Every structure is written in C-alpha cells, then in structure tokens.
C-alpha cells in the first residue's frame, strides 16, 4: 500500500497575523520566513499526530483488494472514489453500496459491505485506488486549539532572541491529538 497527497492544503494552519504576532515581527518584511516556519511546524505536528489539519486530498493505492483499504490520515472528510483496474485492465469505480467506511478507529478504513464481494482486479502494484479528503477544514478557523498553540509557541521560540531556551514540554500539547491505530 502506498499513500500520497495529490492536492495540498490551500491555507496555513494559523493566520499570518497570528504567526507574525508570535514572531514579534513589525510589518510584513519577515512574512516569507514566517510562512516557511509555519508550514514546517504544521508538517511536524501532522506527522507527530497522524492528522491533517487543513483539508487535502490523498490517494491510497494497493495491489488488490486485501480485506481493507486504510484511510491515510485523520479526520476523514469524505471518500471521493474507490477505483480499481478490472481483470482486463479497464478502470472501474466501485459502487458506494459495495463498501462501508469504518470510523470506529482512527484513521479508519474502507471495508466490504455486508453481503458484497471484492471484484477481481488486474495484477498490478496499484490495481486499487482510494481517493479521500482528510482535514478539519479549508482554513485556519477550523484548526484545533492544540495545533494552533503548538505552532504559534514554536514560532515564538524560533524568532526569540539568541540564547532564549526552548521548552521541551511544548510537544506534550499535541498528545491529545495523536492517532493511536
């Protein structure tokens, strides 16, 4: 199974105004550097927690139907499609009636609906393709407070005067968001 992001987030996880204030920047001369730092800290927080903050689209591919198709990140917004290469190599879209999305654990998975059977697929490394949207929303207004707090505190640390100690405890603020699957 492989997972890749096919549509990146369209916004930052925190507003530039909030990030600028955390960096104690006057004006927008440092905006490019602040934005890079926010994006890096967002990626770090998402990696640590197994979550996507701002909505983005993922594609999960696997060689065939092997019981379940995992969702790559939490929270799941929607399943766009579940496609497969049939035995002849033609792309088919599996009917939504044939599968269910199980959200009993995070990040969840797609499994067969009761009474359904997986179709036969072509032998190929990416015979099955699940396309999903994951995230909390389309902009920073949907970002959970724990993510905002972490990102803004780390921005503040990064732009603090030289010699200012970093807090080893900031990362603990993300514990409540970790996906344990």
Entry summary:
This is PhiE125 gp8 family phage protein. The chain is an alpha+beta fold and 181 residues long. Helix content is 22%, strand content 24%.
Topology overview:
Layout: E1 2-7, H1 16-22, H2 31-49, E2 56-62, E3 68-70, E4 76-85, E5 91-93, E6 99-102, E7 109-112, E8 128-134, H3 145-158
Antiparallel strand pairs: 1-2, 2-8, 3-7, 4-5, 4-8, 6-7
Class inferred from helices and paired strands: alpha+beta
- In the predicted model, the low-confidence regions spanning at least 5 consecutive residues are none
Major sheet: size, sense and barrel closure? 5 strands, antiparallel
CATH architecture of the largest domain: Orthogonal Bundle
Helix segment tally = 3
Oligomeric state of the chains present here: single chain
Helix content: 10-25%
Number of strands: 8
Mean pLDDT over all positions: 95
Our Rg estimate from Cα atoms comes to 20 Å
The CATH first-level class of the largest domain comes to Mainly Alpha
- In total, the number of domains comes to 2
Element string (H = helix, E = strand): EHHEEEEEEEH
State the shape.
elongated
Strand order of the largest sheet: 1-2-8-4-5
Rounded to the nearest angstrom, the distance between the terminal CA atoms is 16 Å
Range of strand content: 15-25%
Organism: Massilia rubra
Protein name: PhiE125 gp8 family phage protein
InterPro entries: Phage_CHP
């Amino acid at each position: 199974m492989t997972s890749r992001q096919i549509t990146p987030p369209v916004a930052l996880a925190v507003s530039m105004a909030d990030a600028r204030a955390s960096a104690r920047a006057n004006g927008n001369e440092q905006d490019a550097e602040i934005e890079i730092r926010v994006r890096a800290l967002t990626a770090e927080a998402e990696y640590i927690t197994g979550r996507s903050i701002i909505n983005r689209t993922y594609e999960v591919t696997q060689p065939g139907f092997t019981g379940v198709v995992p969702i790559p990140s939490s929270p799941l917004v929607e399943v766009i499609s579940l496609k497969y290469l049939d035995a002849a190599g033609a792309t088919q879209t599996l009917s939504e009636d044939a599968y269910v999305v199980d959200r009993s654990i995070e990040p969840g998975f797609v499994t067969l609906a009761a009474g359904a059977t997986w179709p036969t697929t072509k032998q190929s490394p990416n015979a099955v393709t699940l396309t999903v949207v994951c995230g909390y929303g389309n902009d920073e207004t949907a970002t959970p407070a724990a993510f905002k707090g972490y990102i803004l505190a780390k921005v503040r640390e990064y732009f603090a005067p030289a010699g200012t100690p970093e807090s080893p405890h900031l990362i603990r603020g993300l514990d409540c968001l970790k996906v344990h699957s």
